[in-house]
Amino acid sequence: MGSRGPIPNPNSSESKRGRNTLHRKQTGSTGKVASVEPPDYILANPPAMAFWQKHAPALIAAKRLQPLQADCFAIVCEQAAEVRVLSEAVSTEGLLIDTARGPRPNPKVRLLRDARRDLLAAARGFGLDAASDARLPSEPPPPQMTVIEQFRARRDKMRVSAEDPDLTTEQRHVLLYGTPEEKQAVIEDVREDRRMFA
Q1: pLDDT value of position 28
Q2: 127 and 50 share a domain?
Q3: What number of other Cβ atoms are within 10 A of residue 144's Cβ?
Q4: Is the Cα dihedral 159, 162, 164, 170 positive or negative?
């Protein structure tokens, strides 16, 4: 569980720091997609196998279905097959059935309603509905820079050399041939410009 509350904003500072549910589970993925085979009892159930074939490839590609989760997803497939069978039965028999005491509500309608509710609850774990799909991360966040890497990046951004493409010809000439005071003045001007437009 642990995914209550509003859907995290991927652009928030909490998401960037990895402190909310957007990137809860970070995996050290190697880019290799694991092969997930359906259990034998799914192979024997054609409606469940059809659900597996329809949804499993996308879940495997999104890294939401791993080999250890095959049995859990098989339960979702069985529930989908049960919903399909009950739905066909209700559409054939109708909402009311004739009994000795007159027309009564079809008991399969209640079973169908409960089966649909259970299917939606189980499918949430794999992101098969809109809300859980938005909650589950599709990609882990990029690794955060250490304090030293942040310092080096800021330092390199503020470093000024004659090879910088954003310098004018005059500034380049001063950096190459000017006095130390002239060079320092050009460096300060360039740094100030970079701070303003950063």
Answers
A1: 47
A2: yes
A3: 10
A4: positive
Say if 3 falls within a structural domain: no
Q: Are residues 42 and 117 in the same domain?
A: yes
- Give the model's confidence band at 49: pLDDT under 50 very low, under 70 low, under 90 confident, else very high: very high
pLDDT-based confidence at 98, cuts 50/70/90? confident
Encoded tokens for 70: 């095959």
Q: Are 137 and 22 in contact (CB under 8 A)?
A: yes
Q: State pTM to two decimals.
A: 0.54
Q: Kindly report the backbone phi and psi dihedral angles of residue 175, in degrees, each rounded to the nearest multiple of 5, phi listed first.
A: -65, -30
Helical ranges in the chain per DSSP H = 13-17, 40-43, 46-61, 70-93, 107-123, 130-135, 147-158, 169-177, 180-196
Residue 22: DSSP 8-state: G
The residue whose two tokens read 């955060």 is: 144
